[in-house]
Design brief:
The structure is a single chain. A hairpin with a 4-residue loop joins β3 and β4. About 35% of the residues lie in helices and about 30% in strands. With about 170 residues, the protein is α+β, with helices and mostly antiparallel strands. It has a seven-stranded mixed beta sheet with strand order 1-2-3-4-5-7-6, sandwiched between helices. The protein starts with 5 loop residues before the first strand and ends in a 7-residue tail after the last helix. The chain has five helices and seven strands; from the N terminus they run βααβββαβαββα.
């Protein structure tokens, strides 16, 4: 049986507090060398420009989030970070959850044309996964190491995730 997650926008102080606790507890998943200071600095420098979607499990416990922002006058959505609790990790959960995110963003901003995100170059699993639906444009150096820059047209990602059906 596939576990189900329920999506909601992060809007209230309570939502932000839940997110911050989850992010601080799970940030080691980005890089085991990431310090608490680096983690807090990332939050402080990105939150004011970002939007957050939270994913609760059946018990109302936070099990995932995705942080994103609109760039280039809203024509590009940049996924800054995302974490999914280990107990929910499966191909089906990723596919369904990412489809939910793309549908949400499509309803929020009908002018998105591109999706962009960065992945640590040494994360072989995520690079194989993302190469299935996005093009690697190049590399960049980040404070946490070398990253691969990915991009895909929003419409193609919607089709890939089967998130292009009207609700």
């Amino acid at each position: 049986m596939t576990k189900r997650l329920y999506i909601k926008s992060c809007e209230s102080d309570y939502d932000y507090a839940r997110f911050a606790r989850y992010y601080l507890a799970k940030s080691y998943q980005f890089d085991r060398q990431l310090t608490m200071l680096d983690t807090i600095a990332h939050l402080m420098t990105t939150l004011h420009n970002s939007r957050l979607l939270l994913f609760d499990d059946e018990r109302g416990e936070l099990a995932a989030y995705i942080q994103y922002q609109f760039e280039d006058d809203g024509s590009t959505v940049f996924f800054d970070s995302a974490i999914l609790s280990e107990s929910f990790r499966s191909g089906t959960t990723f596919y369904r959850g990412f489809g939910d995110v793309v549908s949400w963003i499509g309803r929020e901003n009908g002018h998105v044309g591109l999706v962009r995100f960065h992945v640590l170059a040494n994360d072989a699993y995520l690079n194989r996964l993302y190469a299935k639906f996005a093009t690697a444009l190049g590399e960049r150096e980040d404070g946490n190491g070398r990253e691969i820059v990915y991009e895909t047209p929003f419409a193609e990602l919607r089709r890939y995730l089967r998130a292009d059906k009207p609700e």
